[in-house]
Every structure is written in C-alpha cells, then in structure tokens.
Amino acid sequence: MKNMRKLFSICLVLALLAGVFTMPALANTSDTSPQTALDKFEALDENVYTPATYRLAKMEYDKVKGLVENQNATQDEINEAITALNKRIASLRVANGSESLWKTYEDYFEMGNIYSGSGNLDSGNTRGLLTSSHFNILTAENNMKPESLSSGNAGQKGTFNIYKGSNHASDQLVREAQESGKKVHGHVLVWHSQTPTWVNGGTRGNYTRAQARENMEHYIKTVVQHFDTNYPGVVTTWDVVNEAFIDELPSVPNDANWKDYLREGDQSGWYKAYSNGMVEGEDPSDFIYDAFVFARKYTDAKLFYNDFNMYEDGKSKMAAMMVKELNERYKNEYPNDSRQLIEGVGMQSHNYIMDTPPSKVENGILNLLSAGVDLMITELDLFAWYPWNAEPTGSSTGYRDLRDRGIEHIIGATGTEEQRNYWINRGITNGSEIEVIQAEVFAEYLRLYKNYAASIDRVTFWGLNDSQSWRRGHNPLLWNSDFSPKDAFYAVSDPEGYLGVDPIDVKPIPASKVAEIILDYNNLKPAYKNGKKGGNLISEVAREMGPKASFNNEPRSIKKGEKELSNPAYRKAVFNFLESHPALEERILIMPPDTFFIDGKK
C-alpha cells in the first residue's frame, strides 16, 4: 500500500509538471489568439492584393471563424488554423497591375496578342479595350493561315480570298492595326497543316518537287505582296515555315543531323512532294530553304522559323543546327545580300506549369541563340493540367475559372492516376492555389525573357481570357472568363514584385547548394529523401562539388558596371556537371534560372 501511495504521488507530480509545460501552448497570447488573427485579416483592404492570394487568406479566415464558433473544436485545431491564416496573410501579394503591358515592356520587347475577328481592337468592348491597351503587335489566330487565305484541291489552280479591295478577316486585322498604329506578325506561309492541297498535293497526293516548288513561290508571292502593297509597313515579320520538326524531341545524340527529325511524307505534303523527283544533291528538307528564299525575294519583312516544344533540348538544338546550315548556304549562294536568310526563331511556348519550368525554357533559348539569330516568344500560354487533354472540365461539368474550382474540379479527365490527380497528390485542394503557382511561373518566364531581351523581339500571349482560349479547360491565360484579372496578369505586370525579388542585383550562393536547388525544382526530392542504398544523394553531390566557385572556368556572376548579373554560361556548366554525376544520370532534367543566386529581397 505504501508503494502504491508513492507511485500515485509520483504520477501526480508528473501530471502536474506536464500541465505546467503544456498549458502555455494552449494559452491565447497576442500572436496566437483567434481574435488577433481575425482582426488582422479584417483590417486588410481587398483591393490592395492580388485576387488569388486574398481568396486563399479569406478561406483560412473563414476556417478560423468557423472553429471559434464551433464548441466541439479543439485548441489544437484552432491553433493550426490560426497558423495557416497568418501564413496566408504573410503570403499576400500586392496587386501591381500595369495600365499597359506594352508600355511596361517597351524598353525590352513588343507585347503581342491574337486577333480572332472584327471588333478585337474595338475599345467599346472589354476585349477590344484590353487588347488595345496592353498589346502593340497582333497575330491572326487563324485568319492568315494558308487554308484561310486560299482554297483549291490537288490538281486544281488555287484561288485566293485576298485581292485588291478584299475585305477578308485578315484584311480587317491589318487595316485595324494600321489605323490604331499597331504592327502585325504574319502567321504562317508554309505549314504541313491547314494548307489547301492545290499547293503541295497533301500527304495523299503525288505532286512532284517541281510542281510544289512552283506553287509555293506563287502562294508566297501573292500573300506577302498583298499585305505589303495594300498596308505598307504593317506586317513587319512572318513565320515563313511552321512546325517542320516532329512533335517530341527531348534529346538527340551528339552526331545528330537535323534532317533526320523532320515530319516526313505521312505528315507533311511539302516533305512528300519534295521527295518526288529529286536529283543528286537534293533533299526533301529543301522545301524549308526554298520557302525562305521566296519570302526574302518578295518581302522585306523579318523572317522567322516557328515551332513548339522549343524548351526541349533536342528540338532546340536541331532547330539551331538547321538555321545555321541554311544561313550558311544562303550566304554562299547570295553573297550580295547582307541579311541572314532566317533571321529568327519563334518559340511557340504552349507550356505546362508542371513540366515546363523556366530552366528548360532558358536552356532552349541558349541553344537557339547559338545559331546567331533573334528570338520571339510567339504563342505563350501556360496550361494547368497534365497531360494536354486531361482537362477537369468538359461537356458534363462546363467551364470553370480557377477561382471557382474546388478539390473536385481539379482532377483531370484522362491520363494515368498520377496525371489526373497531379495537384491533389501534391496537397493542392483548390484552383486558387493553382492560380498562384501559375502566376509565379509566368513571373519567372517574364523575368527570364527580360534577361535575354537584347535577343527577343516580342512576347505574344495566345489569347486574353481563359474561356476563349483554344485550351479553355486548362485556364492558361491572364484574365478570367469575365475579363477580370487573374494573379497571372499581376505577375506579368510586375514579375519581380510578385516574386518578391530584386530585379537586377544578385548575390551568388555557395556551389554546394546548387544540387539541392536543382533537385527541388525537379520535384525529385521525395525520391531522394530516404536516400539510395542508405545514402543522401543531395549531400553526396554537394560534398563532391564542395566550395567550387566556377565550372569550365566560368564565373558565377558577371559584373556590368556596378551591377552583378547572373551568368547563364556558369549555370549551364553546373547543370552539365550534375547531369553527368553517376547517381543523377538522366534524373537532372532542368536548370533553374537565377537560383544559383539569391536576390537581396528574396
């Protein structure tokens, strides 16, 4: 009995001690009291902050308020909700919206958008007002593609829908642009798709090389001269050839030849016709060279090659190889022309939040710039679901803005379980969270483009609002269905402000941190957390890199006057080093831009 009393006394003391140490955690201090947190949110002005970040804070506010009013709520639940609310309040972004995107970026590049039909520049409607205010160069979404400008079957003499005095939709575009002082980018002259078969016979035809070449010259001459003659100085650039390479080309061997990766006769009527009737020394790929030579012959506009997935290392390398080879050929054959034949490459940029990080885009930019030409970002939008057809909205549920999507509305319709539940598997529960992620990627893109502005002529967004996009279910643009701005608009308006980083000055971080940064960007860290055979690969690689300050003798940063700028060549060298590490072969996928450096405000 004595021992029992002693044991009881010990337990009582322990219980009292436990109470002493646990009670403060339950106490409501000024930082943790529900009312303090609620008051802090209620004092905010909604109009000051970006819509998605404010909505997310409001969700946590509602949760705290509901728990406080719920007699069954535990203190732990309340404390957790207060912490979440304070984090959301700390994460609010100021809504620094631009009154005119093209004026904001006029020292960097032109800002463009699409034109879909009459009224797109009419400031009397919301779409027209936004287009007129924010963009100074336009691209026809469809109305300047070959099948729109001309018609006719294989074996027939083609007819044109444009002529002196015509009022085709393309005429309306160029005329309205001329009247409003805007420029037009011509899209597109030679393409395997949306082309009348009278020109090249199509993939089922039997045109000879000579027939297709003659028709190509006739088509290009008719089209470019129509716009140059009737609307002089408005159409300043052309996509001469579009999407000549195969769709997916993530990597290529070191001895790759660009001609081996073109769309062949089963996909391209141009390739098929140019394969029919060749003589020694000729190649089916010659249609690309001929198209540019004809365009150079009949217009003074700047000439571009345009393609998608240019963030892929293989595709951008092959495009650069093609451009260099054809420019050298032209220089030899036309030595008196001081201009390059292909003067630039368009990066279409129909990108995905989850697999097109800025580092991949930067790698593509570096590959293409090696050809010695300029660039354009030609069709920028940023898809929210993976893969391209895994849209969570369809005919049964209808379109939804990101702001209206709950957890049940962010599940993909097709694909693997991982693809359909991509966001849910990563702890995302609503569309507002995705809207912030999308905005951050847009901000990083624009920050990257500004870094290379000396070589980028323009950035064109492929549409204005999500519901009118060609990929509407992916919510890929800057405005909601009612043309109210998304967080993406504010991110593009002020990328540094949205990210909370300094726009110019950068401070190098130790090389030993680079491995962790890259793996974090790759979203591979979960696979490495437990290590491989008991080891921690992040630590292993970091130790191997040690305190190295340079790779391939490249400095981490470049001094330009008093400014310290990040060095792309250094980042590329580090990327190559990590990619070749035995533990990380084929696992290092991307090269995060500027994250080898930490900005003063980050």
Secondary structure tally, helices: 22
- Helix content, binned percent: 40-55%
Q: Write out the strand line-up for the largest beta sheet, numbering strands in chain order.
A: 1-2-5-6-7-8-10-11
**Strand element count:** 15
Name the poorly predicted regions: 1-29, 526-535, 598-602
Strand content: 5-15%
What's the average pLDDT? 86
Structural class: alpha/beta
Could you walk me through the main structural features you see in this protein, from its secondary elements to its overall organization?
It is a single chain. With 602 residues, the protein is an alpha/beta fold. 41% of the residues lie in helices and 12% in strands. It has 22 helices and 15 strands. Strand 7 (302-307), helix 13 and strand 8 (344-347) form a beta-alpha-beta unit. The longest helix has 25 residues, at 2-26. The model is unreliable at 1-29, 526-535 and 598-602 (pLDDT under 50). Residues 95-495 form the GH10 domain.
